[in-house]
Amino acid sequence: MEITKVLVANRGEIAVRIIRACQEMGIPTVAVYSDVDKSCLHVEMAEESLPLGDPTPAQSYLNIPKIIDAAKKSGANAVHPGYGFLSENAKFAKACADAGIKFIGPTAEVIEGMGDKIAAKRTMRMAGVPVIPGFTGEEKNETIEEACQRIGFPVLIKASAGGGGKGMKVVTSPDGLSEAIASARREAKSSFGNDELLLEKYLSKPRHIEFQILADEHGHVVHLFERECSIQRRHQKVIEETPSVAMDAELRKKMGDAAIMAAKTVGYSNAGTVEFMLDADRNFYFLEMNTRLQVEHAITEMTTGIDIVKWQIKIASGEPLTLEQDKIIQRGHAIECRIYAEDPGKGFMPSTGTLKTVELPTGINIRHDTGISQGSQISPFYDPMLAKLIVYGEDRKDASRKMEWALSNYIALGVTTNIPFLRAIIHHPSFATGDIDTHFIETYFKSWSSAEVLPPEVLIAAAIDDLRHSAVVDEPGAEAAQENHSPWAHAGRWRIDS
Amino acid sequence: MELHYEHEGKLYPVKIARDGESFKVEVGTRTFHVEYKEGKPGFITMTINGRISKCNIATEGNQRHIFINGDVYRFNRVESGTRPATFDKLPSSITSPISGKVTMVSATEGDEVNAGHVVLTIEAMKMEYQIKAPYAGKIEKIHFKTGDQVDIGALLVVMAKNKAESEESSKQEE
Description:
- By secondary structure, chain A is an alpha+beta fold.
- Chain B folds into 2 domains: about 1-80, 2-Layer Sandwich (Glycoprotein, Type 4 Pilin); about 90-160, CATH 2.40.50.100.
- Chain B is elongated, with a radius of gyration of 22 Å.
- At the A-B interface, helix 8, strand 17, strand 18, strand 23 and helix 13 of A face strand 1, strand 2, strand 3, strand 4 and strand 5 of B.
């Protein structure tokens, strides 16, 4: 089926990323937007755009009837869901199919099978892929509390329908168990509309290693190597890189084969990711399969030269995958930092406001994926990720240095961001040696805070700025008079070089 | 002229005067001679006692955002002679650190609670944030109920501190 127009059912940087890929392929796009996103970049870029109304996710980007309706109205014959929102919603995939619209992703059956984390683990265990010991809710005559005793503390509680850290809690002793279960159920309910929980053994010093998969609709599956996403806060990824220092050719082959086996077992098609935990003894366990494009797909694109989003569209239009496993080569090293509107010094509390000044680092092999720009309002309705900063270097050291430079030259004022925190991580000696695991931030940055005192330069700059701006009132002399006669005084804030 | 800035509860007085084309700035006991150049609006190059320093400024009412050497400082200009609110070490009220929806109220007015007791749970950006009692005391007033939308900075709870603990903590402060 030829894809002639794509509706992008998402917002922010990923909507922009998808629109760009479509434009390069000569396919017109349709953006959708909630009331607060009217002037966002993705709306500006798309050929057409349609409003979704109320900014609450349930009334906008999670609203299946509204989005299907927009696709029909605009004549789009395919929908790209991005990540988050409806990307892993089997009902949405089915609603698209029923309306005769191609869902760019796997089939509704596969999404449903993998979205149910319990069923997914059972499927993988049966296919011979190793799985972490845990509780799936299917154990006969066992409550979640009893399962904790059997598995042994610490345990990790997760939403069975979820992902992205929502509804996840670590419990270290029986004391906090009932409160944690109640809170996890509420988060699961509000994020996914399903309060079922599952439980698993909490591994010590585990690394998060995932494999990118591409599968066409004719049974051909390849992997595009691993990504290490061990630097996490609140179980959400912050920094990702590829390749992982924990891998060698043998382990990479073993895990890559397991990932392909996982994809083939479920009849997977389109882009997907198989997530594993790798413990200190290099045992790996299947964690879950993400049946969509990942936030961190860009680092794989940097090291393989393969455009994952374009392949998603080609695969959805029925084209066979022309990539062959032994011809796919990993080259150099790529790192991604997620720029969040949040305050790492205050428990990663999201921050809102207006971005007054944005000045980005640019240079060789620096990629910046974003949906915001100077003047953007950061609202409390959606995920606080503002942008992704991705760098590519000849090796890990080169890439780390480039990332440190890029972060040091990334100006975003008006909304508190995690940029200084990201710099501190990249600069940390354990990050430099690659001695990282998913507890890295908790271990080294638990009580991190940004600058506690104002250095003199900062006070000097503020004071001079304030003096100059009060100059007209204080001294109606030279400066004010001079500025009045200058044509620039009437030109507003134009920039000649832009 | 003398200016005052407040950051994390600390007050910073700065004295500043024009000195021909340059500026003379006093911070604490130190005096700096500064040349100042603004390129694009907000993009500043300063020469402070002979050393070059580049920074970027954004202003929002009394709030100042300054980017320098990869770090960002966010602080407030305050009127001379005022004491910033954050100087109160024992606030009697809890304000919301975030904009979001109240998903649970776990105390009632009149309750005696311990420090760390979760009073409210607020959900924002699909994550839960627990609002805890900063000290042991009595809950005098809760301004929101489950389902309410709260804005950042909104007054959530008014508390009265336990007398015994007040004395203890004022001892610690000495």
